[in-house]
Amino acid sequence: MITPQPLGQALLRHLILSEVHHIxxxxxxxxxxxxxxxxxxxxxxxxxxxxxxGVGLLFIGLRTYVRVSTVGWKGLQADDYLMWVAAVCVExxx
Length: 94
Description:
Elements: H1 7-31, H2 39-71, H3 78-91
Helix pairs in contact: 2-3
């Protein structure tokens, strides 16, 4: 004869099985081939990536302009130069 489980144990078992199911679904999604991504989706991604790169470079340029206007070229510090180094590394050749 099967004895009924207390409500707490049954609920805990259900929650654990539910979480395991969600984790397996996530792993399954990660294992799908990348070829499933459509050409249109990839074009949209590339467009967005370059737009964000442009916005980032614009802000770095504006910040550099303001810093040079306020403290001059000799007043620039390491963080001012490191921003441009990071921008070149992000944009660099692929």
